[in-house]
Amino acid sequence: MMVGVEEIEVLVAHKERATLRIGDVFLKIDTDQSRTDVEVEAMTMAPVPTPKILWRRPPVLALAALPGRPLGRLQEPSIASTAAWVAAGAAIRTLHDAPLPPRPGRSLDELESRLADECDWLIANDVLPIDVVTRNRRLAETVFRPWTPVFIHGDLQITHVFVDDDQVTGIIDWSEASQGDALYDLATLTLAHEEHLDDVIAGYGTDVDLGLIRAWWSFRSLIAIRWLAENGYGSPETFPEVAVLRSRP
After folding, report:
1. By three-state DSSP, how is residue 21 classified?
2. Per DSSP, what are the bridge partners of residue 150?
3. DSSP secondary-structure letter at 194?
């Protein structure tokens, strides 16, 4: 038996990447080092708390654990306080007010093409009724308009924001960081947690277009389902994204 080796916890594992935890160290293993390049650069630039980079030896990036716990989980009601959600909104505003990162993000043409492909797949594979896909696609297409780009996280899921004592202690997983639409980050954080949208906006500190946030909910849900299904996350009927799409009027 090896002495001094802590238990290895597998947090994420699929075809593209894996994340392991050993004590207070997270090891991120990624098949695409360009994503890790983006992540390291974004954490260096971001004016919000991020994990400390311990070392990098491709394909592995080692990060220190953050204090606190995630704001919540997509599949469950959040037990975080209202103040914690407000603090998350304030942190997002700080990020969006920062100088732009060099990565331009996806163009409108790329976003439109991705949405069309995913909607076609959902219908062809009978994942959702045609009327549900069509209704949400029509709503999602309203996000395709000019916006003033800001520094976005790009994958600001509820599990990526850590809080402790109603304060944000860190934000993880920056591989999708780029220039983009501020409302996309706000929508990603509140997906399937619409009851906390007002708290996030209160912390964000400025008026936002709620219709566009709902449109980004539809967009993100439509494009996520195939990837989740193909990477072992279960049956689509169990996905919160499917519930979001079915709930749209």
Report:
1. strand
2. 180
3. G
What angle do the packed helices 210-230 and 108-124 form, to 10 degrees? 60
Mean pLDDT score of the chain, rounded to an integer? 95
Spatial separation of the C-alpha atoms in residues 131 and 98, rounded to whole Å: 40
Segment (H or E) for 246: helix 240-247
Residues 70 and 160: beta-carbon distance below 8 Å: yes
What domains sit in the chain, N to C, each tagged with a CATH number? 66-247 (3.90.1200.10)
> 87 and 163 in contact (C-beta within 8 Å)?
yes
User: How many Cα neighbours within 13 Å face the side chain of 116?
Assistant: 7
* Residue range 25-61, pLDDT digits in tens: 999 999 999 999 999 999 999 999 999 999 999 999 9
From the list 131, 206, 175, 203, the residue with the least C-alpha distance to 36 is 175
Helix (H, G, I), strand (E, B) or coil at 60: strand
Q: Are strands 53-57 and 60-64 parallel, antiparallel or unpaired?
A: antiparallel
pTM beyond 0.90: the answer is yes
pLDDT at 3 exceeding the cut of 50: no
Q: List residues bridging with 22 in a β-sheet.
A: 8, 25
Nearest to 189 by CA among 163, 227, 207, 165: 163
The counts of H helices and E strands in the chain are: 8, 10
Question: CA 48 to CA 218: how far, in whole Å?
Answer: 28
pLDDT tens digit sequence for 116-161 = 999 999 999 999 999 999 999 999 999 999 999 999 999 999 999 9
- The answer to whether the beta carbons of residues 236 and 244 sit under 8 Å apart is no
As a whole number of angstroms, the distance between CA 199 and CA 205 comes to: 10
The SS3 call for residue 30 is strand
